[in-house]
Automatic annotation (TrEMBL):
Residues 487-496 have a biased composition (Basic and acidic residues). It comes from Streptomyces koyangensis. Keywords: Antibiotic resistance, Membrane, Signal, Transmembrane, Transmembrane helix, Transport. Residues 1-23 form the signal peptide. The chain crosses the membrane at residues 39-57, 69-91, 97-115, 127-152, 158-176, 188-207, 213-234, 254-274, 294-313, 320-339, 345-370, 391-409, 446-466. Residues 470-496 are annotated as: Disordered. Pfam families: MFS_1. This is MFS transporter. Residues 2-469 form the Major facilitator superfamily (MFS) profile domain. InterPro entries: MFS, MFS_dom, MFS_trans_sf, Tet-R_TetA/multi-R_MdtG-like. It is a multi-pass membrane protein. Residues 470-486 have a biased composition (Low complexity). It is found in: Cell membrane.
Length: 496
């Protein structure tokens, strides 16, 4: 029941990201909204989700992981209900921001609950299932939302999210409560500085394409964000009860595993976000056909995590599994440069399957390996930091990726405004063949750049995960305590 409750909630949180994107046209038409106010239906959720995840994780260690899970789920459901009933775009954006705060509580505490409930091979299987659940949410979200929008309207999409979370919370009584043995007060100052710093950084990245990257507003936000995050690090090094124990960050293997979702953002999430627009705009696909083609990339995300978990439990090195998975991102993105306006689906099936397999192999396995390196009393903090890296990188990288894509298209079609329309799938305003060719060439350049980033990330993570010089049997101290780990790590003791 613990696994069922947590997985049900984990399906809904990413579904709220991918599903809401499909509802945007209907929202804009119904609420007479466009441009930045409409886009903030997505941005508000991502901003608060990223900013509050670390705080929620540390709070879960102090006040209780089940309590934080229930509170986060309730806030998420309340925000979804408010979004479904919102009479205007401003209230809808505020409701989505509230849902993002609740999602942070669900993600940070849910992973910590699994880490402190399961041990050994069972933990590996549980986190593999968690990876599949996240994949289901991402993959099913657009299709399910499309059906709901077409049949019942866009409000039904947010209503469904509230209902699913309510069902999950109905089983929360089966979750065992756990918390850190030593429970100092929450570092409120650190929490405020971190939320403000990461929020400013994400906001600056999101508004960069809208305001211009060299505009005073964007530059001020980015500088303020980096400065506040630097100050946060200083505060944590001096705090007796830090929001983030810096010994976690200093553990090269834990930090390397936290970088896995960052590489996945570059290699997988960017394609999930921008490839459908290319297929519809330059390829002439219908939205339904583009969604079907995308199943080549999303289906492996549902199937591969259990396979990777089974291999890990049979003795296959998690380092090898993760390295191969990340290498698939590099290979898949480079291979996808065969894509063109008239390219048959059979030609791009290979790179899409490879990229999806990389995502499926890395989802869950990396999370489980990371959690096996930390002590039980830091489970919430560690999960919060891991998911902050995941969600924060998604918000920032997607915004930067889109801005670079528009810039590259602009150099090929000669107009920034036209490039923005082309990147959004509107190839009007120029000869269709010219716009499509410029779009394709720009996307190829970005795919090669992404493949390079993924290759470098793969090498760096593989190097950081290498066993100590004494060999695989040499113990490695886990953060803040003395629990030994082997090359593939052994989980700490279970906490009731």
């Amino acid at each position: 029941m613990t696994l069922v409750v947590v997985l049900l909630a984990f399906v809904t949180v990413p579904m709220s990201i991918s599903g809401a994107a499909v509802a945007l046209p209907g929202i804009g038409e119904d609420l007479h909204a466009a441009g930045a106010p409409l886009q903030w239906v997505m941005n508000a959720y991502n901003l608060t989700f990223a900013s509050f995840t670390l705080v929620a994780g540390s709070a879960a260690d102090l006040v209780g992981r089940r309590r934080t899970f229930v509170a986060g789920g309730a806030v998420f459901a309340l925000g979804s209900l408010a979004a479904a009933a919102a009479p205007g775009i401003v209230l809808l954006d505020l409701a989505r921001a509230l849902s993002g705060i609740g999602a942070a509580g669900v993600f940070a505490s849910g992973g910590a609950i699994l880490a402190t409930t399961f041990d050994g091979p069972a933990r590996t299987r549980a986190f593999a299932a968690l990876g599949s659940a996240a994949g289901v949410g991402l993959a099913v979200g657009p299709t399910l939302s499309g059906l709901l929008v077409g049949g019942l309207g866009w409000r039904a999409t947010f209503g469904l999210h509230a209902v699913v979370l309510a069902v999950a919370l109905a089983g929360a009584g089966h979750l065992a409560e756990s918390r850190a043995e030593r429970r100092p007060r929450l570092d409120v100052t650190g929490a405020v500085v971190f939320v403000a710093g990461l929020g400013a950084l994400v906001l600056g990245s999101v508004q960069g394409p809208e305001w211009g990257w060299s505009s005073p507003g964007v530059v001020s936000l980015l500088v303020a964000g980096l400065g506040l995050l630097g100050y946060f690090g200083v505060l944590q090094s001096r705090s007796a009860a830090p929001l983030l124990d810096l010994t976690l960050v200093r553990n090269r293997r834990f930090l390397a595993l936290c970088m896995v979702p960052v590489v996945a953002t570059f290699g997988f999430v960017t394609l999930l976000t921008y490839l459908p627009t290319y297929l519809v705009g330059a390829g002439g696909f219908s939205p339904q056909r583009a969604g079907t083609v995308l199943l080549l990339m999303t289906a492996p995300v549902l199937l591969a995590p259990p396979l990777a978990g089974a291999l890990a439990n049979r003795g296959v090195s998690t380092r090898l599994l993760i390295t191969v998975a990340l290498a698939f991102f590099a290979g898949g993105n480079a291979w996808l440069t065969v894509l063109g306006p008239d390219t048959p689906v059979a030609v791009i099936a290979g790179p899409l399957l490879m990229t999806g397999l990389g995502a499926g192999m890395s989802f869950g396995v990396a999370d489980g390996a990371a959690m096996s390196l930390v002590q039980p009393e830091q489970a919430g903090m560690a999960t919060g930091f891991l998911n902050t890296m995941r969600i924060g990188s998604e918000a920032i990288v997607i915004a930067v990726y889109g801005a670079v894509l528009v810039s590259l298209i602009s150099t090929r079609v000669g107009s920034h405004d036209l490039a923005a329309r082309v990147a959004a799938g509107d190839l009007g305003g120029a000869t269709s063949g010219t716009a499509a060719a410029g779009y394709t060439d720009a996307l190829h350049t970005l795919l090669y750049a992404t493949a390079t980033v993924c290759a470098l990330g793969t090498a760096a993570i593989a190097l950081a995960l290498a066993p100590p010089r004494g060999g695989p049997g040499t113990p490695v101290a886990a953060p803040s305590s003395a629990a030994p780990t082997s090359e593939d790590t052994r989980p700490p003791s279970k906490v009731a």
